[in-house]
Amino acid sequence: MPHIYRFLALVVALAAVAVSGPSFAQKAQGYVLEVSGNVTGQVGAGQPVKVDKGQTLVNNATITTSPQSYAVLKFEDGTSVLLKENTSFQIQNYAYNPKVPEDASAIFNLVRGGLRMLTGLVTSRNRDALKVATPVVTMGIRGTEFMAALVNPLYLQVFSGAVSATNAAGTVVFNAGQAAVVTSSTTLGSLIPMTQVPPGAFQMPNFPLSSAPATIPSGAPVGGGVAGAAGATTAIVIGVIGVAGVIAASNGQSSATNH
Question: Which domains does the chain have, with CATH numbers?
Answer without folding.
Answer: 27-217 (2.60.120.1440)
